[in-house]
Structures are given as structure tokens and as C-alpha cells.
């Protein structure tokens, strides 16, 4: 068994987690538990999970220990069950029925450890018409309505938000919430549980507020025409003179007043509450942002309550963090 750096502190110190290695939301959920101080042992399979990146650079491996187990070998399931016997939580992200066929499903694990919280991550759930169907984030968020409302153009296709909305927000975070709630129950009552986190369920739940706004008449059921989807001229992204972009979120009156003052378009400010003049206001904002570079606008808004920020790339974010922490950024 190899050991990586382990935080060894945090609110979950003393909690033992077994992670059956996979890709995507399952490893991320286990990473969150490790970040909170849990002792996570990742059960890796021969050949790796097939993610296609150097495991040393896979940040979801951080704060975890690992052990290599071939679950298709006759001795493999017994090794995992030995780990389960001393664990508090198990996390797996196989298709429905796979863990059972491998001999490490909920029944086998809970028979060995009745206090275990068995966390499962799937896209469509353990049963139902789509349960056995292959899928990815984009499909999960498509059928929940989440994808359909993302994007600035009401007549164009939706914007794909990487795999953040389904896999990680609707998947990993809901799984972690579920297993921690079940862990509390197990400690209070000595009784383990199976937590089934389906990405479609979590993603649908994320849209709760929007459904409420739709029912109340405060949201139109199409993209790019609402307050929070790019339809609002003071909640959106604008191009700068150098091809960069600035993000604007000046929703409240006082923040909007600061925004228009610093942008230098106070004469267009009265159009804020006049939906009919929003195109005029959007053009005024866009024209003004194109008059300076992203760096110049960043300097203008820095330290203010105008709710404006530069849109950074992943590499820019990493370089900035390294500079702040004094790290080597030679390969950034």
C-alpha cells in the first residue's frame, strides 16, 4: 500500500473511507471527504481507471492512500471486505449491478459491517428505464432541464458547462451530503445505510429555485432572456479591447450604481428597470468595455462593490495562486 500526503486533521478525522476507484464524480466525492480529514483508501484496479492522465497529476487522488486489488481475482472481494470491516463509509460509482457481481455490493458489505454507510454514484439511478444505459454529464443535465436554460442566445444551442453541473454539483456534492447524513444516523443508532446518489436527481434538485421563479412568472422558459442567464445587461460577460472578457453581476441597486459610475455610463443608468431599453443599455455597456483592455478594467473595478471581475483562464488562475503562495510555477 502506498501513502500520499494526508491532511490528518479536519472535522472527519478518524472517519475511514474505502473508495472503489473510478472516474469523475465518485473520486471527487472521496476527495472531498479526504479534504475534510477522513482517512481514504482508494482501491485501484490493475491498469488504472482509464482517465488518460498521469495519476500523480490527478488532484482527486490527493490525501488518499491506495491499494491495488483485482476484484475479478478470487481473492479480490475478500480483500475489499476486510477493508470494509473497519471502515465507516464506502464509495463506488459502478453501473447498477456491477458491485454485486463483483462480490462487494451492499448486502455483502453490510453483512461484514452493519454500521457501514454504502455510497453509490450513478447517472440514472439503480433502477428505472435508463438505469442500465450508458451516459455522461451532458445527457444527465439535458433531460433535467438544466442544460436547456444555459446560454446567452435564445435562438441558438445551449452552452455546455463542462461537466460541472451534473457530475460534480448534482452528483458528487449530493453523494457527500447523503453519506454524511447517513454517517450521523449510523453513529446515533448503530445502523448503516445505502445512499444512492443519481446525478439526474441531484441536478433536477439544483433547479428548484428556477422552477419556483417559473411558476411565479419571474422566469421565461427560454435561454438568454432572464435575470441570471445572460439576458440581463448587468449580469453577463463583455469583451474588452484586447479580446479578454469581464464578468458583471451588478444586480442590486447600490452595486449597479457603482458599476455604471465606474464604467462611465451613468447616462444610460435609467434604463435599468425598463426592459424595453435593455438592448440599448447592453450596447452602451458593451461599447464601453471594448474601449479598454481587461487589465485596465480590472484596475478600475478592483476593490469596489461594483461586482465586476476579470474572466480568467485555468492557467491564469494557477499562476496567480502560485504567485500568492510563493510556489514554483515553471510548468504553469
Task: Characterise this structure.
This protein has 332 residues and is of the alpha/beta class. It has twelve helices and ten strands. Strand 8 (235-239) and strand 9 (245-249) form a beta hairpin. Helix 1 (25-35) crosses helix 6 and helix 6 crosses helix 7 (199-206). The longest helix is centred in the middle third of the chain and has 26 residues, at 164-189. The protein starts with a strand and ends in a 7-residue tail after the last helix.
Summarize the structure.
By secondary structure, the chain is an alpha/beta fold. It is built from 12 helices and 10 strands. The strands form 2 sheets. A 7-stranded mixed β-sheet has the order 1-4-3-2-5-6-7, with helices on both faces.
Amino acid at each position: 500500500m502506498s501513502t500520499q500526503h494526508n491532511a490528518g486533521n479536519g472535522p472527519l478525522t478518524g472517519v475511514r473511507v474505502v473508495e472503489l476507484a473510478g472516474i469523475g464524480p465518485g473520486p471527487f466525492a472521496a476527495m472531498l471527504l479526504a479534504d475534510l480529514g477522513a482517512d481514504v483508501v482508494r482501491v485501484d484496479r490493475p491498469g488504472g481507471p482509464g482517465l488518460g492522465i498521469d495519476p500523480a497529476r490527478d488532484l482527486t487522488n490527493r490525501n488518499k492512500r491506495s491499494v491495488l486489488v483485482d476484484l475479478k481475482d478470487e481473492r479480490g472481494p475478500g480483500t475489499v471486505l476486510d477493508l470494509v470491516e473497519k471502515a465507516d463509509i464506502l464509495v463506488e460509482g459502478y453501473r447498477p449491478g456491477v458491485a454485486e457481481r463483483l462480490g462487494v455490493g451492499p448486502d455483502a458489505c453490510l453483512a461484514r459491517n452493519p454500521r457501514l454507510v454504502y455510497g453509490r454514484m450513478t447517472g440514472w439511478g439503480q433502477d428505472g428505464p435508463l438505469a442500465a444505459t450508458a451516459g455522461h454529464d451532458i445527457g444527465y443535465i439535458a433531460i433535467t432541464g438544466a442544460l436547456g436554460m444555459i446560454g446567452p442566445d435564445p435562438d441558438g444551442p445551449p452552452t455546455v458547462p463542462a461537466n460541472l453541473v451534473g457530475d460534480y454539483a448534482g452528483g458528487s456534492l449530493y453523494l457527500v451530503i447523503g453519506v454524511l447524513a447517513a454517517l450521523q444516523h449510523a453513529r446515533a443508532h448503530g445502523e448503516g445505510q445505502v445512499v444512492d446518489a443519481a446525478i439526474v436527481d441531484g441536478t433536477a434538485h439544483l433547479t428548484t429555485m428556477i422552477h419556483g421563479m417559473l411558476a411565479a412568472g419571474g422566469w421565461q422558459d427560454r435561454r438568454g432572456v432572464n435575470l441570471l442567464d445572460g439576458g440581463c445587461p448587468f449580469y453577463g460577460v463583455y469583451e474588452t479591447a484586447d479580446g479578454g472578457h469581464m464578468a458583471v453581476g451588478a444586480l442590486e441597486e447600490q452595486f449597479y450604481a457603482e458599476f455604471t459610475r465606474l464604467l462611465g455610463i451613468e447616462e444610460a443608468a435609467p434604463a435599468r428597470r425598463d426592459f424595453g431599453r435593455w438592448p440599448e443599455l447592453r450596447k452602451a455597456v458593451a461599447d464601453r468595455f471594448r474601449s479598454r483592455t481587461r487589465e485596465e478594467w480590472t484596475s478600475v473595478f478592483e476593490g469596489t462593490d461594483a461586482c465586476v471581475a476579470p474572466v480568467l483562464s485555468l492557467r491564469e488562475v494557477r499562476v496567480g495562486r502560485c504567485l500568492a503562495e510563493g510556489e514554483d510555477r515553471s510548468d504553469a
